[in-house]
Amino acid sequence: MGNHFCLATVGGFxxxxxxxxxxxxxxxxxxxxxxxxxIGSTSALKRSKQLVKGNWWYVxxxxxxxxxxxxxxxxxxxxxxxxxxxxxxxxxxxxLRIAGGLAAIVSTAVYVPMFRNLRDVKG
Length: 123
Known about the structure:
The protein is about 90% helix and about 0% strand. By secondary structure, the protein is mainly alpha-helical. The chain has one domain. Helix 3 crosses helix 4. The chain starts with a helix and ends with a helix.
């Protein structure tokens, strides 16, 4: 499943930035469709696009707000911590691992309720 999502998104970014953003919004729910609804990869891409249809701007703005909050609450403090503690390569690697884990938690905490909301609206 992951390969189809990655190929579709990377392919979109290779074409142009705007289509890449469109593909990211359309297909962003595909991993959750696979896991929660138990649908195969190609069908999950179609289902994700169907869920976003008519709600594209809602999804885009929700993700932009989430990314902004994440940047302010996680990236800025981690950057300050890195600068204050001396900025060694080992510290940078450790902070990046922690920030990556937090990003996974935050994205799941945003995507799953949004997915369920869209699923309830679309049926």
